[in-house]
Amino acid sequence: MDTVFDSDIDHNYTVKKDTILGAGILDNSVSIGLLLSLPAILNALELRFESDIVLAGVIQSIGRGNLRGIRHLLKTWITPIRGAVCIEGVELGRLDYYSSGMVRGEIDCRIPITGIKSDFSRPNAILMLNEAINQILKLRLPQKPKVNIVFGKISGGFKHGKDAYDASLGFEIQSDSDQMVKLLFRDIKDIVDGLNHENDIDMSIKTISNTSASRLKFNHPLVKSAAAIIKKLDLEPISQHSESELSIFLSRKIPAITLGVTRGRNYHSRNSEMMIKPMFKGIAQIIGVLMAIDNGVCDE
Predict the structure, then answer these.
(1) CATH code 3.30.70.360 region(s) in the chain
(2) Exposed e or buried b for every residue in 217-247, given b needs 16+ CB within 10 A?
């Protein structure tokens, strides 16, 4: 459950003395394990809460899923939600409480193979995407608001000695400003449209997913309480922007944070490895934050 790897990848895990090894263990199977274990842990600690605690493992989060699972859950939930805790495999000490505006997109390039053009005169789809990247990199980005364009994945072609007739580029625009995200996406679309027109190719751009910029303030009681709990466990809170389920809670004015469970290495690889011992502090912090929410830190 909740892994970036397809079902044809071996998802058996090797449990060693100090670590657990296997594909997807840090992203995000260890969190699912904790989620499923939480009722037993709370019962063992004889903890009782005034609030109902909903344990949710949502689907269709990444890629084209566009966080559809959490959007549907919150849209159809009929009772008030006091607060939320999102859990990620790594890094222990992680305390995310803000989300950047984001658009994740794809540029597809197809070269028509009809007609009498030879391979020497026909455009190459990979080179056309390379030209798109070059033109995007020439865009002037402001220092404020903060903005970043990430080229995350590229694929294309079918044979070493043959020009590529199709290729695809995955990218993401991130900014503190939703308006800046929209403006940059428009600029990139203009680049794509220009290359498409000038080179007699089929190049198109589409949006895969998007989130809005939203945040809690650092002095929000939930953030301050979580930071205090993390420090009490002799850890140092580390914050960064998050475009995960957290952004959907915050955009709906529901106080929420993201916490990391443990430490590890090879985060997105098949031989991902999590450390067992740090996980006990990871569990303790989550329980502490749940108790704080139950005691009213989100009830402004």
Answers:
(1) 101-211
(2) eeebbbbebbbebbeeeebebebebbbbbbb
Q: Which residues contact 80 (CB under 8 A, 6 or more apart)?
A: none
- Confidence category of residue 114, pLDDT binned at 50, 70, 90: low
Q: Sign of torsion, CA 172 87 260 25? A: negative
The rounded distance, in Å, linking the Cα atoms of 14 and 273 is: 9
pLDDT of residue 120: 58
First to last CA, the chain: 35
Cβ(249)–Cβ(85) below 8 Å: no
Q: What is the CATH number of domain 14-99+214-294?
A: 3.40.630.10
Average pLDDT over residues 148-177: 93
Give tens-digit pLDDT for 263-298. 999 988 889 999 999 999 999 999 999 999 999 999
What is the C-alpha radius of gyration for the chain, rounded to an integer number of angstroms?
23
Q: Which fold has domain 101-211?
A: Alpha-Beta Plaits (3.30.70)
Helix (H/G/I), strand (E/B), else coil: 169: strand
User: Among 62, 46, 47, which residue's Cα sits nearest to residue 3?
Assistant: 62
Residue 200: pLDDT over 90: no
CA distances from 240 to 20, 103, 127 (A): 26, 18, 35
pLDDT tier, 116 (very low <50, low <70, confident <90, very high otherwise): very low
Beta bridge partner(s), residue 238: 94
Which pLDDT band holds residue 89 (cuts at 50, 70, 90)? very high
